[in-house]
Amino acid sequence: MGFSFDLTGRTAIVTGASSGLGARFGQLLAQSGANVALAARRKDRLDTLAGELGARATAIQMDVAREADVIAGYDAAEAAFGTVDTIVANAGIDGAGMATDMPEDEIERTLNVNLKGALLTAREGAKRLMAAGQTNGRIVMIASITAFQPSPGLAAYSASKAGVVQLGRTLAREWARRGMCVNTISPGYIRTDINADWFDTDMGKKQVKRFPKQRLMGQEGLDAMLLFLCSDAAEFVTGTDFVLDDGQTL
């Protein structure tokens, strides 16, 4: 029997959708039939993307580190499309800097956006799914290979992403009997707005040369897994972290 990753009838929210992977995820879900609430702090960029996607998309200004913003964001998504049943917690910042040099406020900001933001996004969606009595929820949180690979200069970022992986497993267990599937994706290094400057440096180029395939991943490398985890085909998949890294950690 074949499986379909057609998302027609689903309503999704994608955080961090103003650029990079989040923008791609929003496009992918909309093109696969879902209604998509594009959420980020930079609404001007969201408006442009939503305009390109048409009636399937709406732009929502939302800071995932603020619970009031998250609640308001879900309210706006529901006003546009109804109950959100597909949640992609993607918002994140790099928080780069050696552990002894990072200012306290930057450590706090990194943990707030990457970890606290993922929790606030996931739990608000779960609360509403439970209240609506829906049992087909899909929650996907974006972690990183730095969650388990020591990465000097990314102490706060790595810790936040390790937290996301464990958060995914814990929420999957908490909500297992409520019909929700909660999983994480740990991508390898992909060129995005966050890291483009680094990979243009000599040190960044040397890092790429150390990878087994001596290349950065393309953003399209996450497409199939994201669609699967957001679809009905993933009914029996929960509490799992999927490492998609082009062999970078080998």
Automatic annotation (TrEMBL):
One of its GO terms (molecular function) is oxidoreductase activity, acting on the CH-OH group of donors, NAD or NADP as acceptor. Residues 10-193 form the Ketoreductase domain. GO terms for biological process: fatty acid biosynthetic process. PANTHER family: 3-OXOACYL-[ACYL-CARRIER-PROTEIN] REDUCTASE (PTHR42760:SF133), SHORT-CHAIN DEHYDROGENASES/REDUCTASES FAMILY MEMBER (PTHR42760). The keyword Lipid metabolism does not apply. Keywords: Oxidoreductase. It comes from Parerythrobacter jejuensis. Belongs to the short-chain dehydrogenases/reductases (SDR) family. Pfam families: adh_short. InterPro entries: KR_dom (IPR057326), NAD(P)-bd_dom_sf (IPR036291), Sc_DH/Rdtase_CS (IPR020904), SDR_fam (IPR002347). This is SDR family oxidoreductase.
